[in-house]
């Protein structure tokens, strides 16, 4: 069982989340019980017995879709796969990687790098990847990054953009004190969240309203005026569907966010590596956004959308 100082707080956070929840904890699957994809886990300790790979996901639709893509590609490569989806925030699933509850998760280079090194100052894809790799806990590794990016962004309605005359995050500075910012709970405490906006752009909002990551609640809150500014992932189809305005980030508070497999070294072998690297080579921001339209806007099953994508690689 791996234990590192970097993950001590994450493990405590995950235990707290499980204790406060309904008991339906994706990381608490017992041996032989059904996982999120309906299959049964053999009770692997995460050390790769029999070549099994347990694929996890964060608790928002895009990450679930990416996890299903990884699972489909690995299955096609003859790897035994189970999935544990909708685990929670990075603090929770990093603890799962640490204790072997999961072996693999779709990550985003910038978010991971900032989590591991809150003092990070680089923003390019190559530099962010290098920083993340330098600070990875022992026993974890990153495979090849994809071209696909899904960055944090600050978004306003077209009406707000016109009324305030804002096109960038910096333009919010004289107005922030009268505005409500909405975002996922962790955005309030992460270095590139509320604190980063204050430090980098001098923004002090009237209020921060906690909303579920990647959920339609954020879109509804922005559309209905319950929040004035929202943290929405850049590939969310709701941005285009609602003519929301993504504010430019001239100070690069939000670093490069290339999609990348984060995996336990225990389960890496040529078949696993080749399958996941092929996925990364095929993923682009454009096709990821198109798949998100199918999942979020059209209500298609993420597993079916993932299967169609992998079949086309």
Automatic annotation (TrEMBL):
Residues 52-311 form the ABC-type glycine betaine transport system substrate-binding domain. Gene3D superfamilies: Osmoprotection protein (prox), domain 2, Periplasmic binding protein-like II. Pfam families: OpuAC. InterPro entries: ABC_Gly_betaine_transp_sub-bd. Keywords: Signal. The keyword Signal applies. Residues 24-54 are annotated as: Disordered. Residues 1-18 form the signal peptide. One of its GO terms (cellular component) is ATP-binding cassette (ABC) transporter complex. This is Osmoprotectant transport system substrate-binding protein. The lineage of its organism: Bacteria, Bacillati, Actinomycetota, Actinomycetes, Micrococcales.
